[in-house]
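Here is one record:
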Amino acid sequence: MVVVSKQALSQATIKRIPVYYRTVKDLQQAGVKRVRSDRLSKLVHIAPATIRRDFSNFGDLGRSGYGYSVDLLAQVFGELLEVHSEEQMLLVGCGNLGRALLTNNFRRNPDLTIVMGFDTDPQLIGTTIAGVPIFDLTTLAQNIRPGMHTAIVCVPSSAQTSVINQLEANGITAILTFAPKPVPAKPTTTIRYIDLTSELQALLFVDHQKQVARQVTEPLR
């Protein structure tokens, strides 16, 4: 088995790796020993050809007629995602979206856990949401745990820059934010912007294109 470096992978493949990992971990827990690309395709909603092309980046993971070893896939993708230990994260912004994330708290992936939240709302500070304590954002430096480097940001765009600056000042280097406007950050900081409106528009566009294509190929009655 040969695993290529992350730098050699396309961004599209990198985005699919967590989906593959979560699915093969579910299969592993269900006692499944091997899986073919066509079955995996139905589980992850990714074309079998795309799955086989992605997997070819990682050496000889399977063979024709046999499929892929679930244990091997879990090992390879786990190493790529560096899930050797639990990733403890903090969340800034405990409004409706933040509350939903805290309540769900990555239940399908035990390697990811939000362990504390921060907000500026006096009604939230000092409470707990789904067992997660909520602190005053001004006390971030006092409450952040040693070794934490990941944060999720659920604040309005107007507050995003100051929040990210505060996170960086306290050693946070990986940030997922739901405010889509890019902000200046340190070269050592990795930020992923989630724009739900753009994602939905892209989804609707692709769906529309599929419907148009289906209508064109349907035989006249």
Observations:
- The chain has a mean pLDDT of 86.
- The chain has eight helices and ten strands.
- The longest strand covers residues 112-119.
- The helical segments are 11-29, 37-44, 48-55, 70-81, 96-104, 140-143, 157-169, 196-217.
